[in-house]
Every structure is written in structure tokens, then in C-alpha cells.
């Protein structure tokens, strides 16, 4: 057993040191790009960049070094941290840069062949129709059903006066139920205190921080480790690894996979029984997975998905939609608690609009200007995902909007990027670039969206799919469900803002960056993912 582990470790370390060894022999154009001083050749600034408390450091290097920054990673491996608009366009639109090998393999291990890697284009083609505006209009009543259940539960909790409530927990449960009913036709939660959250809800909430502990292994070793031996051999190696963190992550993944298989089998059985059986299910056969599975059955052999790929969609869609949406909702509610005036404006807006209708449809929700401004500004300043690593799959040239000065004093307008080079799409930095948004770019000001945006923003032609922002990325890897997420947010916010007034509690809240940003509270020296806010009826 020990020999097996040592052999595997030796092969992984041999690969780990291969790239730095080559770097010592071959100079790279990236060497001439300015960036923060590494802690050492061994560590670089890896621990400062990929760190739950990295926000201040990332903002500092953006202000100091501009929109193209060299960040030295482990063993002298140079990455580029980028928020230059032209460079971003070439990264997301030119089909040269893909997710890193470690990211793809990590998600395969956790979710299977989802909307990542080689299967991406085939699967996205099949999923595009179910994220259309026409289909989402039909989803709004489902969103309201979930929102009203949440509202009813919170009303009971505050019936005797203001109460401190962990808003993150309820936003997580709500986001999971939203994608559960509308996405996979399954209910995870009845929103009662008597019934604790579904074990899937608990697992997915723990997944991001648990996986983030292995970010070094994912970035540098995982793509090699998955090529060593057979799947059975690799599972045996994982089973032998010591440490509670490994066992915890494995248990989380097992629960998510088992739940996805259970949902898939139930859905497959209903489809086989016909439309009447589907109509009896949650989602009434109009949920994303029912439509996907129906389309898959009639697709050609070339375009159809395997059973494992369909099961992976359940985990991928659920995890992606739940984590990011709950983070965004929690951030909005925290900001509204911090800014009482900004909380009152959408409340008046919603109240006035409700004089002519009881429940908003898709178009009515989209026509509430201040609610829309709050969502846009929150996603601009505080995107749930702050940065995304990418890898160049072939040699390319990366041009810049404006020339930068190299360490040797030369003017650099473009840079050759060798295949295998890692870059970081700096989402938050791109959204808050003061050269585009002005000196108050890092400040949360919803009112900026109620007037014309700065001319520099429109001229920059940011390649994001949403509102001159990179929050949902752009190009072929843009978030396929971004409109779905936005309408979910607006339904939940419209219901909560109309019914409840939020204020800050006495507890100190600190937002951490993991795979997805999350609010934390320190209790007894231990940080826990929570957002305690005081809630009372309006």
C-alpha cells in the first residue's frame, strides 16, 4: 500500500518539476511583464492570489500594475492576470483559451461530463432552447411559488418582532429549490423548520470550500494524476489517502452523484410512461432536464448524450446555478441592509407597480428600473466568481488595448503566448476598471445604471454577454443560464423587499473568495459560512 502511494507521488512530482526545469532553460516573453514580487521562487504569489482573503491583494495589484499583470505561481511558473478589454476579447472569443486541465478534471471527478471540456459544444447546442426567453417566461410562476414559500416561512419567524436570521442559509435553500423545480423537476425543500435541508443541499454548500482546499493539487497535479493507471487504481489510491479533508470531499461528491442518479432514473421512468406521467411530476414536464432528456432520445447518434453525460448535467446545472445565485442574492441583501435608502427605493417601486397587478411576469420584472440597477451594480462590483483561470491550447498572439511598459522599458502592444500558458480572466477587476468606470469604480452605486454609462465603457467593447460586464463571461464559454439566474434573482428580491426590512446585526461579516464568494462569520476562531441579518416585517 505504501509502495503504491509512493510510486504515484513520484510520478506526479516528476511532472510537477518538468515545467519549471524547462523554464530555467527557455526564456518567455511573459518574463518581461511587470507584476508583484514573489514570496520566493518556490511559492511565487500563488498563496496570495488563490486565497479566500485575496480580494484586497487583487485590488492592490490591479491599481499598481494595470490591466496585464504577471503573477508568478509555483516554482517560477508565470501566469498572466488580465482585464484588458482587447486581450479579454481574444481570450473568450477566439477558441484558443479553454478551462485549465486541472479545472476540467476536477469537475469531471465531482460532476462527470457536464458543460465543460470536449463535450461542451454538443451539450450546449442541445441545452440552448431551454434557456430561451420564451421558455423562461413559463418558468416565472414556478419561481413565484418558491418565493412565496420562503416568504411564508420568514413571516412566521418574525411574527413576534425582528429576528436575527442566517440569510445565506435561506438563500442557498431557495436557490437549490428554484433550480430543483424549474431545472430538474425535483423538490428538495418544503421550507419548514421541522424538516432540515436535503442532504444534497448540505453537500453542495460544503463543496466549494472543501474543494478549494485542494486548489494547488487541482492546478498542478490533478491532470497528471488522472492519467496514472485505471479508474479502479485511482479510486484505490484516493481511498488510501489520509486526512479528514479528503474523506469529507469524497463523501460530498458521493452524495451529489447518488442524488443525481436517483433523479435521473425517476425522470427516465416518467418519460417512458408518457406525457401524463411527466405532467404529474414537479415542473410538469417543462423543466430543463425533462426537455433535454426528451430531445436527447430523438437526437442523432452523433449529437446525443450518453446516460453518464445526462446524469452529469443534473449535478453541473444544479451546483452552478445554486452556488452563484445564492451568493448574488446574499450579497444584494447584505448591501441593502448596509444601505437603508437603497432598500426603500425598490420597495416603493414595487409597491407602485403592484397597484396595477398582483404578480409580475417576466416583462414586468424586467421593467423595474431600480431593482434592475441593484442587480446590475451588485454583479458589477461583487461578481459571485471573481476570476477564472484559462489555458492556451495552442500558440497565439495576445494584443492589448493600450501598450504597457515592460520591465526592460520597452513598449509592449502584444505578447506571444506559448501553448500551455495559464492566464486568469480577472472578472472583478474588469468590472471595476477605473479607466472605464471612473474614480468611483469600486463603489456600489446602483444609480449609475439609471443614466447613460460612461462613454469609455461602451467604447471598450467588453466581451461579456451581460451589460458590458464579465460577470457571466463571454464567447462560447459564457454562462448559458445567465438570464435564468437574473430572473430568479428579481423574483426573490421583489417578494422579499416588499415584505421585509433588513438591517445589520451585531456580528462582523467578512466575504471570502473560494470557487464562489461567500459571507463568513468568525465564531471561536473558526470561520463559518453565514450571513446573519436582522429581519422584520414591513
From TrEMBL:
Protein name: Cytochrome P450
Main location class: membrane
GO MF term list: heme binding; iron ion binding; monooxygenase activity; oxidoreductase activity, acting on paired donors, with incorporation or reduction of molecular oxygen
Cofactor(s) essential for the protein: heme
Entry keyword annotation includes Transmembrane helix: yes
PANTHER family to which the protein is assigned, alphabetical: CYTOCHROME P450 (PTHR24305), CYTOCHROME P450 12A4, MITOCHONDRIAL-RELATED (PTHR24305:SF166)
Pathway: Secondary metabolite biosynthesis; terpenoid biosynthesis
Amino acid at each position: 500500500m505504501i509502495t503504491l502511494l509512493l510510486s504515484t507521488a513520484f510520478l506526479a512530482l516528476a511532472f510537477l518539476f518538468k515545467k519549471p526545469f524547462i523554464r530555467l532553460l527557455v526564456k518567455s516573453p511573459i518574463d518581461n511583464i511587470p507584476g508583484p514580487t514573489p514570496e520566493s521562487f518556490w511559492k511565487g504569489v500563488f498563496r496570495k492570489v488563490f486565497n479566500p482573503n485575496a480580494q484586497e491583494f487583487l485590488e492592490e495589484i490591479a491599481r499598481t500594475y494595470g490591466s496585464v499583470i504577471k503573477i508568478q505561481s509555483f516554482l517560477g511558473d508565470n501566469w498572466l492576470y488580465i482585464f484588458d478589454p482587447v486581450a479579454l476579447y481574444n481570450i473568450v472569443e477566439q477558441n484558443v483559451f479553454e478551462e485549465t486541465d486541472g479545472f476540467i478534471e476536477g469537475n469531471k471527478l465531482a460532476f462527470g461530463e457536464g458543460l465543460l471540456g470536449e463535450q461542451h459544444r454538443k451539450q450546449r447546442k442541445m441545452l440552448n432552447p431551454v434557456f430561451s426567453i420564451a421558455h423562461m417566461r413559463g418558468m416565472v410562476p414556478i419561481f413565484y411559488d418558491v418565493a412565496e414559500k420562503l416568504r411564508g416561512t420568514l413571516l412566521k419567524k418574525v411574527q413576534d418582532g425582528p429576528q436575527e436570521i442566517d440569510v445565506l442559509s435561506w438563500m442557498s435553500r431557495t436557490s437549490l429549490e428554484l433550480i430543483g423545480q424549474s431545472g430538474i423537476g425535483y423538490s428538495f425543500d418544503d421550507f419548514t423548520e421541522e424538516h432540515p435541508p436535503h442532504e444534497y443541499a448540505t453537500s453542495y454548500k460544503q463543496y466549494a470550500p472543501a474543494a478549494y482546499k485542494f486548489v494547488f493539487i487541482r492546478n498542478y497535479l490533478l491532470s497528471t494524476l488522472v492519467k496514472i493507471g485505471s479508474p479502479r487504481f485511482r479510486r484505490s489510491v484516493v481511498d488510501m489517502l489520509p486526512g479528514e479533508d479528503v474523506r469529507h470531499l469524497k463523501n460530498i461528491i458521493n452524495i451529489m452523484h447518488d442524488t443525481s442518479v436517483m433523479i435521473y432514473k425517476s425522470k427516465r421512468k416518467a418519460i417512458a410512461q408518457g406525457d401524463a406521467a411527466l405532467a404529474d411530476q414537479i415542473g410538469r414536464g417543462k423543466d430543463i432536464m425533462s426537455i433535454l432528456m426528451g430531445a436527447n432520445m430523438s437526437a442523432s447518434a452523433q449529437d446525443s448524450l450518453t446516460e453518464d453525460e445526462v446524469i452529469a448535467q443534473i449535478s453541473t446545472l444544479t451546483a452552478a446555478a445554486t452556488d452563484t445565485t445564492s451568493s448574488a442574492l446574499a450579497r444584494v441583501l447584505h448591501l441593502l441592509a448596509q444601505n437603508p435608502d437603497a432598500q426603500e427605493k425598490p420597495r416603493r417601486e414595487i409597491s407602485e407597480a403592484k397597484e396595477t397587478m398582483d404578480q409580475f411576469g417576466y416583462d414586468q420584472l424586467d421593467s423595474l428600473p431600480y431593482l434592475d440597477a441593484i442587480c446590475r451594480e451588485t454583479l458589477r462590483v461583487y461578481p459571485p466568481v471573481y476570476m477564472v483561470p484559462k489555458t492556451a491550447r495552442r500558440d497565439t498572439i495576445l494584443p492589448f488595448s493600450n501598450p504597457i511598459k515592460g520591465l526592460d522599458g520597452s513598449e509592449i502592444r502584444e505578447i506571444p503566448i506559448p501553448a500551455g500558458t495559464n492566464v486568469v480572466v480577472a472578472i472583478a477587476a474588469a468590472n471595476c476598471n477605473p479607466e472605464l468606470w471612473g474614480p468611483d469604480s469600486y463603489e456600489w452605486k446602483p444609480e449609475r445604471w439609471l443614466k447613460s454609462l460612461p462613454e469609455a465603457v461602451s467604447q471598450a467593447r467588453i466581451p461579456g454577454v451581460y451589460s458590458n460586464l464579465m460577470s457571466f463571461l463571454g464567447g462560447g464559454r459564457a454562462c448559458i443560464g445567465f438570464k435564468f439566474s437574473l430572473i430568479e434573482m428579481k423574483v426573490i428580491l421583489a417578494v422579499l423587499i416588499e415584505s421585509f426590512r433588513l438591517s445589520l446585526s451585531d456580528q462582523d461579516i467578512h466575504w471570502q473568495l473560494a470557487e464562489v464568494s461567500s459571507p463568513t462569520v468568525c465564531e471561536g476562531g473558526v470561520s463559518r459560512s453565514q450571513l446573519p441579518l436582522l429581519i422584520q416585517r414591513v
